[in-house]
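Shape matters. Shown next:

___
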Amino acid sequence: MSNDPGVLLAQVSQELSTAAGEGRLDPRLADDLEHKVSQAQDKLAEGGRKGKDKTKDVRKRVRDIRHELAEAEEHQEFTSTPEFDRLLDHLASLVGETD
């Protein structure tokens, strides 16, 4: 598994699309989460271009994604996989999101 948050965010995006396509994730929620992933990717790119640390912004979006998925799972709008859980946990640990 990569230690590059940009690579991991791309994998999260792919997993969200797969989950929606397989009926394991509500499509509306998938769209919302894809938007958050895109925002996190934009913040990473912006930080790289401007030489600024955007980890805090990325951390917030990763936290939002994890919380929304947990809530969706509670409401039976999402069914995760162990692989996706590991991917999210690894991404969260890289950006310092521990909640």
